[in-house]
Amino acid sequence: MSQTNLLKLLEVGVLLLALGVFVWWQMRDLKRARQATARQRALEATPSAASPLSDASNPPSPSEQSDPSEPLDPSVPPRNPPS
Asked: What's the pLDDT tens digit per position in 30-53?
């Protein structure tokens, strides 16, 4: 075999190895994400005695605070006025 063919085989081997490591890494991350989601859902499903405490430490998001059917305040200027 010539050196060019040997280098090509080495290059293909390294790329296949890198692809294998990448797929393994992604599968590991997917497994961890699924476990974290399952833990989170289990925590949300079980009623806890400290729920008032958790509500105080977790303020509602802006989307939960305002009713979307309420009209906008005309005194507040738009963020990106037209130029």
From this structure: 999 999 999 999 999 887 655 555
| pTM higher than the cut 0.70 | no
In sequence order, the 6+-apart residues with CB closer than 8 A to the CB of 54 are 48
Using the Cα atoms of residue 34, residue 39, residue 44 and residue 50 in order, give the sign of their dihedral: negative
CB of 43 closer than 8 Å to CB of 37: no
Number of helices followed by number of strands (H, E) in the chain:
3, 0
Distance from C-alpha of 50 to C-alpha of 36, rounded to nearest angstrom: 21
Which residues have C-beta within 8 Å of that of residue 48, sequence separation ≥ 6? 54
Q: In the structure encoding, which two tokens stand for residue 27, read together? A: 């599968």
Tokens of 12: 């293909």
